[in-house]
Amino acid sequence: MSRIRARLYRPLDRFDLQVDLDVPAAGITALYGPSGSGKTTLLRCLAGLERAAGGGSVQIGDLVWQDDQRGHFVPTHRRALAYVFQDAYLFPHLDVAANLQYGMRRTPRARRHIGMGQAVAWLGLEDLLHRQPQHLSGGERQRVAIARALLTGPQVLLMDEPLSALDARSKDEILGYLEALHRDLTIPMLYVTHAAQEVQRLADRVVYLESGRIRWVKPVSEAAVDRDWPVSGPEDGTAAVVEATLVAYDETDCLAELSFAGGRLLVPRASRPEGERHRLRIPARDVSLALEPPARTSILNVLKSRITDLRPYRAGQVIVALEAGQWPLLAQVTARSATELELTPGMQVYAQIKGVAFVS
Predict the structure, then answer these.
(1) Is the pLDDT of residue 230 over 70?
(2) Are 187 and 261 contained in the same domain?
(3) pLDDT score recorded for residue 237
(4) Which of the four, 116, 183, 295, 336, has the lowest number of CB atoms within 10 Å?
(5) Strands 3-11 and 156-160: what pairing?
(6) What is residue 234's predicted lDDT score, i.e. its pLDDT?
């Protein structure tokens, strides 16, 4: 498989960025970590917007953009990349259609593997083409910026916290469009964020940065339940991510049955074709534990599981790491419950899952 490889060193004010990146050139790779950890600097170095110190290298598949040992450096405007910033940076004197055409006209015909109509349809811009940027919402402007980036025919799409300036409704809307692009496009994306739920909803893998260093690289399903996954705020990322296949649909009760490595789940959902792959998010707070199979309960999803780890959470709370079959899950219980149930690693329990959310 084609790879994205970069060895970069750049002195910064509070620490030095020193990374050795090697990830597949496929799907979405999230560059994740706290504010000021070096995520944006790494992205800018990959784009050539900032020059790393001597000895650096950047290679995307077969394209070598930087090799300091050979004195080779490709300037940004000659790199087959597209960069989406926090601000859309649309031309205010051009309408949406002209903004899109600007990016396409500057792209050699051989690289135009996405047409105007495709980009407009993917980002839902049909009704916006003749409007000026100043008359667009923040979410609409960002959708135009993403479409314009795709029309440049990039080999890689770099996104620097594209949702950070948007309200919750606009974020959710654009995440839906990004999920569709993830399904339909083969262009690899490097996506900078410090929002755990964005990572869990979009990413295939996570590169976690802290103080200018890559601490670990893991598939999102492993990263989300890892002890080292950072926890912050009331809406943090304490949740398991499950990849599942829709195997049946109950028209009477409007329930989708999904199969994954840990068993089967029933989820309220409008009818969808069987065989579709979906990503589910199971928040730890929506999982409770029982020592015996529960009887006569309203909770539809109960998975036989094994405890792999327990760790303190907030005051009076414990996070219990589980394995259901071959899939990791999390449960959030009170410290008193953990004590009274005598929960220990290796114990068999029954995970009662109250809430399962489709995220793609």
Answers:
(1) no
(2) no
(3) 62
(4) 295
(5) unpaired
(6) 45
Tokens coding 225: 């339940």
Joined together, the tokens standing for residue 318 give 């414990």
| Contacts by residues 36-41 (CB-CB < 8 Å, ≥ 24 positions apart) | 37/209, 37/210, 37/211, 37/212, 38/12, 38/209, 38/211, 38/212, 38/213, 39/192, 39/193, 39/194, 39/209, 40/160, 40/161, 40/192, 41/10, 41/12, 41/17, 41/212
Tokens representing 285? 């707070």
Residue type, 311: R
Token pair for 345: 């690693």
Distance in angstroms (rounded) separating the CA atoms of residues 228 and 69 = 36
Distances (CA, A) of 11 to 16, 68, 164, 227, 340: 4, 16, 26, 30, 52
Name the nearest CA neighbour of 214 among 57, 5, 21, 6. Answer: 21
Domain range enclosing 315: 239-358
pTM, rounded to two decimals: 0.88
3-state class of 144 per DSSP?
helix
Note whether 161 and 264 are same-domain residues: no
* Nearest partner of 48 among 35, 58, 36, judged by Cα: 58
Confidence band (pLDDT; 50, 70, 90) for 103? confident
Give residue 232's pLDDT: 44
Specify whether the CB–CB gap between 290 and 350 falls below 8 A. Answer: yes
Mean pLDDT over residues 304-308, rounded?
96
Judge if 215 and 252 occupy the same domain.
Answer: no
- Within-domain flag for 230: no
Supply φ then ψ for residue 40, to 5 degrees.
Answer: -65, -40
Percent of the chain with pLDDT over 70: 96
